[in-house]
Amino acid sequence: MGKTLFEKIWDEHVVADLGGGASLLHVDRHYLHELCISRGFPTLHERGLPVRNPDLTFATPDHVISSAPGRTGGAFPWSIKVMDTMRIETAKAGIRLFDIDQDGQGILHVIGPELGLTLPGTTVICGDSHTCTNGALGALAFGIGISEVVHILATQTIVQRKPKTMRANLEGVMARGVYSKDLILALIGKVGAAGGAGYAIEYAGSAVRALDLEARMTLCNLSIELGSKTGMIAPDEKTYAYVKDRRFAPKGAQYDAAVAHWKTITTDADAKFDAEVSLDVSGLPPQITWGTSPEDVIGVDGRIPEPRHVSKSEALAYMGLSAGDRIAGTKVDRVFVGSCTNSRVSDLRIAAEVARGRKVARHVEAWIVPGSVGVKKEAEAEGLHEIFLEAGFQWREPGCSMCVGVNEEWAAPKARCVSTSNRNFVGRQGPEVRTHLASPAMAAAAAIAGEIADVRQFMS
Amino acid sequence: MEKFTTLTAVAAYYPRANVDTDLIIRVERCAKVEKNGLGKYAFEMARFLADGSDNPEFPLNNGPFREAQILVGNINFGCGSSREMAVWAIAGLGIRCVIAPSFGEIFFGNCFQNGLLPVILPQAAVEKIGAALAADPANAKLTVDLSRQVVVAPDGSEHAFAIEPLRKKALLEGLDEIGLTRLREPEIVAFQDRDRVKRPWIYV
Predict the structure, then answer these.
(1) Roughly what angle, to the nearest 10 degrees, separates helices A384-391 and A345-355?
(2) Which residues, in sequence order, are bridge partners of residue B142?
(3) Which of A41, A347, B132, B204 lies in disulfide reach of A440, CB 3.0 to 4.6 Å?
(4) Chain B residues within an 8 Å CB radius of A143
(5) How far, in Å, are A411, B4, B75 from residue B167 at the CA level?
(6) Same structural domain for residues B14 and B61?
């Protein structure tokens, strides 16, 4: 029987079989953000261990840094200390650091692919749950806790149990105004936030093949919201073209050898998955969440469903919404376009298309936070920042910002925020803040309308 | 790592589905608070009211459940962020074992790194145990026997659970994963030597 993409990458990285279903896997790419360093390195030092492979370890600040224009680092004494620790430790260990304002700085899961660090067939591990984003290139990529970060720093390996495999077949043609964010939200709505638990997911089907690489990253980004720590897409001609000539990608004859290798790692025709799920994307409307789990999602033309469980009643109360009401027309206070889900230049182009020639509603504060220095430069070269600024959006500096809020870039209590990020959890964007997840197009439409709105009405 | 063998203790039932790690510990606490201080902030948005007083509706705030060392939860417990501080925060409350029908995968793995046992039982069993705990707080005790792989409910019924053998051994003996992997350094060297020939583009 043939093998899946996941199984091929897994098998190629086994350093040792530990028995009982556990394997020691080699880590090709270990990404560190500033909190991984401030929390992980003290343990490494206590044990007297060096960083085994600084050559395979890459760091950038994204979590605690401010996104305010003109920022120089953290916004608080504690975050300035975290930044100092990051600089000292990476310099001592010889780890490449992409620091503030340097080419390469940005959200880790944006810069990994952008710099050509994330490659097909690699294992990409990071102390951040959205590492699964990197799976879009055909990598085995997942997030870990700080103990495992220390384990990788010390050994360049990780102990893992082989998950089962699931194929998510997305077929059909997306309608205008519908993007990969809508596809993955709809899939989470269909199978639930724990639907992928215990599985490594491969996204396949005509709708996936049609997506460009950045849209595929959005799809894989929300694998963790589907319950799986890893999701991936088989590399194809689009992937090879995306990788070519990037800063750390193989060049010349080595690129050709790499592509030849990458062509061998796709799922065999006779491979079997432990589970298959499917979604017909034709006719799917733009999606938006109404509750406090990503599975609480409906079409923007829909009504808020009756709660099936006490958790859902609590979610409605937290969100200040009533079952049976239309979601469109709900007044919003904040809009956030950014995060490792939707902060790439293609996302910003989509938002700018909606914003062009229009104005942000007077009661709305709307932020655009590009995912990296590279994204910001590219967007500015195209003039996207001018479209946003003229419309009344803030044009900010790259980082995680309002997605995770560790830098306390929060909305006010009870404020309602349409966000292109990945989590609508209680308190995620600040205490009592009400988050609605949606695509960049839907977020821009909400900013203009001042309420949740169907972006299709903004398109000619 | 702290060992886990057998635990008989007060158990509390928290029936909320999809308890995420942001709910367990707010991200700014992860960044600012030392490891041993996180228990104070565990579940803070659910555990405390706006004025800082205890929320009487939060299960761990009620009578005997304040002493709970076992938490019985619902589906997808610990979903979301990879923050290991969620495990540290729960451990900081004195919890040594979480029982649920399913877990967030990264949280599940992080538990084992900290001597905290996550137990998966079928949803019907979890709901039955949870209801029994809530109905009779005076007798709300469970026994979790890792070597036999069973949870003993207040009525004496036993519920078997699965655990991967290496993880079981690590918990029972308090093994150190990094120390064990370092013993395999020759295999790691051999892997990288082979790999540098096969995939030279990895080593930049």
Answers:
(1) 40
(2) B9
(3) A347
(4) 82, 106
(5) 42, 11, 22
(6) yes
Q: How far is A389 from chain B (nearest CA, A)?
A: 30
DSSP state for residue A305 in the 8-state scheme: P
End-to-end CA distance of chain B: 35
* Distance in angstroms (rounded) separating the CA atoms of residues A130 and B25: 18
Q: A244-283, pLDDT tens digit by residue? A: 999 999 999 999 999 999 999 999 999 999 999 999 999 9
| Block residue for tokens 């979890």 | B126
d(CA B106, CA B108): 5
Residues 6+ positions from B174 with CB-CB distance below 8 Å: B1, B2, B3, B115
pLDDT at A431: 96
- Position B1 confidence tier, pLDDT thresholds 50, 70, 90: confident
Q: Cα–Cα distances in Å, from B59 out to A291, A456, B54, B87? A: 23, 45, 11, 18
What ipTM describes this predicted complex? 0.96
Backbone angles phi, psi at B27, to 5 degrees: -65, -35
Looking at this protein, which amino acid is placed at residue A439?
S
The number of distinct structural domains making up chain B is 2
Contact B31 A49 (CB under 8 A): no
Cβ-based contacts of B1 with chain A (< 8 Å) = none
| Helix, coil or strand: residue B201 | helix
Show the tokens assigned to B113: 């790194």
Distances (CA, A) of A7 to A56, A139, A141, A201, A441: 23, 11, 13, 11, 36
Q: Strand B70-72 vs strand A157-161: parallel, antiparallel, or unpaired? A: unpaired
Residue A204 has φ and ψ, to the nearest 5°, of -145, 175
Element (H, E) at B71: strand B70-72
SS3 content of chain B, % helix, strand, coil (to 5): 45, 20, 35
For the domain A5-160, what is the CATH code?
3.30.499.10
Q: Which domain holds residue B116?
A: 6-163
User: CB-hemisphere CA count at 13 Å for B138?
Assistant: 0
- Domain A288-458 superfamily per CATH: Aconitase, domain 3 (3.30.499.10)
Query: B176-191, pLDDT tens digit by residue?
Result: 999 999 999 999 999 9
Contacts of B164 in chain A (CB under 8 A): 20-22, 161
- The verdict on B102 touching A (C-beta cutoff 8 Å) is yes
* Position A84, amino acid: D
